[in-house]
Amino acid sequence: MQRKTFNRLLAYVWAYKFLAFLALTFIFTTSLFTTLLPLLARFYIDHFIAKGRLSQGYYLLLAYYLLFLGRVLLTFLSQYSFSKLAHSIVRDLRQEAFANLEKLSMSYFDRTAAGALVSRLTNDSQAVADMFGSIFANFISSFLILLVTLSTMFTLNWQLSLYISLFLPVMLVTVLVYQRISHRLVQMTRQKLSDLNVKLSESIEGMRIIQVFGQEKRLLDEFENINQEHLTYANRSLDVDSLFLRPAMSLLKILAYGLILTYFGLTWQQAGFTAGLIYAFIQYVNQLFNPLIEVTQNFSVLQTSMVAAERVFDLIDERDYEPTQANLAHEIEAGKVSFKNVSFSYDGKRDILKNISFEVNPGETIAFVGSTGSGKSSIINLFLRFYEFDRGQILIDDVDIKDYSYKELRQKLGLVLQEPFLYHGTIASNIQMYQERLSSAEIEEAARFVDAHDFIQKLPAGYQSPVTEKGSSLSSGQRQLLAFARTIASQPKILVLDEATANIDSETEEVIQKSLQKMRQGRTTIAIAHRLSTIQDADCIYVLDKGEIIEAGKHAELLALKATYYKMYQLQAGMMKE
């Protein structure tokens, strides 16, 4: 699994092959300079220090320090290049993940916590950057230095080099054992970090409810439990790191030093080893083991990065897409809507809608009422193509809804939700919704149409007044009027109202109702209503119960039946009198 992930990450490097080639060139040159330094030191020791000619070797010392400075500069350039490469790759990963996220169906978001998605796009992708920015560069540099150093050592003394190279398989086995043990721990650590993000996001989102119901202690305990679990797995990873990484590698390095000293101590008289050669070998053992120790020290970070990359790729590979459209060249002109025997289930087991059939002629208004869970919102969700259905048929202008393009549906269907969502930006940008074709005059015209212009003009900066997160600085009625203006600005043929007045006070409702009356003129309107007083003029009202239409007719007709709708109306009328 990790090899597949690593190979996939390398494919992203190919897009920046010139930068990668430049970084590799710097690393390769650095490894050559690193290998030349002990050779220069050996020559200087044997030919100048040993013979007492220190003053004659100044040019060699100069070359040594120039090589040393060159190595420092090249090391900086290689790390700088890899950091740029890392940031570019992570930018691409985030872009690809977010692009796929926008295509996913509502059912995916129903079962996936927002905090978990945020964690994958931020924390996990940043962990990939850490791998490419430093760890990946260290791995390549260490590998090149290992090859060049071993080659040089074998040219100096192949017998001793052969003994030293026996340590390499031991180091490899140590790393493999570490990888097998730590992978699961790293996975759980990342999962608990994601859980922390979910709990944090959920708590911040619902802080008002938490404080109103005095749930601070409970939420704190839940957060502490997840936090403690994250700490537990992190500490277990640390225990494994402490045993298998630097201590194990350092022990092997000490054993290698002992082998060198023993070998030279036993054979120097017969072989005629010089002080410069002994110095060079000690330096090469350092060059051999120090990068490997650094690599193994960073192996835990590499493990974390690989697990993080897997989580990002899981998001990129998710294929639970929104329903597909045939994208035929049909246009919505009249706005006639027909449901024919539509049945639907969210889980594939229990039907939420059962054989729903109705028809709305162009310019008419229909409304759905019913208790919670009766299927009102599900009808809207299917009509707006948030969910796929395979039983029954939905038609617009006698054309199957699946044959329209998404562009046509989004332009001709206007939606107003119970809780209007406003973005960071300005009043104007929230009405315009970044549709460049809308001019300032058209934005103002839409606001005037829904009676939002007056309150906008009273704001300090008018249409350029800033909007905070979710429009919290505006009243619920003002937010709803902006949502109306946004919908009207796009000039939809069919208007969908999902309990658009449910959270509005009675005084504001009068203004909202006037705006709705104007919005509905000449448009086919489908409304979900909580307050029955808002839909009394509808051409047809459908009463839903457990996914079925049990009553249908005009307001007066349904009252005359003295059945479910009558009881609902009487209940609300009684509550209003009280």
Automatic annotation (TrEMBL):
Q: Indicate the segments forming the ABC transporter domain, all copies.
A: 337-571
Q: What is its main location?
A: membrane
Q: Care to name a GO molecular-function term for this sequence? A: ATP binding
Membrane topology (UniProt)? Multi-pass membrane protein
Task: Tell me where the transmembrane regions lie.
Answer: 21-45, 57-77, 135-154, 160-178, 254-282
Which SMART domains does the annotation name?
Answer: AAA
Q: Which organism is this entry from? A: Streptococcus oricebi
Pfam families from the entry? ABC_membrane, ABC_tran
CDD domains tied to this protein: ABC_6TM_TmrA_like, ABCC_Glucan_exporter_like
Q: Where in the cell is it found?
A: Cell membrane
**Residues of the ABC transmembrane type-1 domain:** 21-304
* Superkingdom: Bacteria
Q: Which keywords does this chain's UniProt record carry?
A: ATP-binding, Membrane, Nucleotide-binding, Transmembrane, Transmembrane helix
Name of the protein described by the UniProt record: Multidrug ABC transporter ATP-binding protein
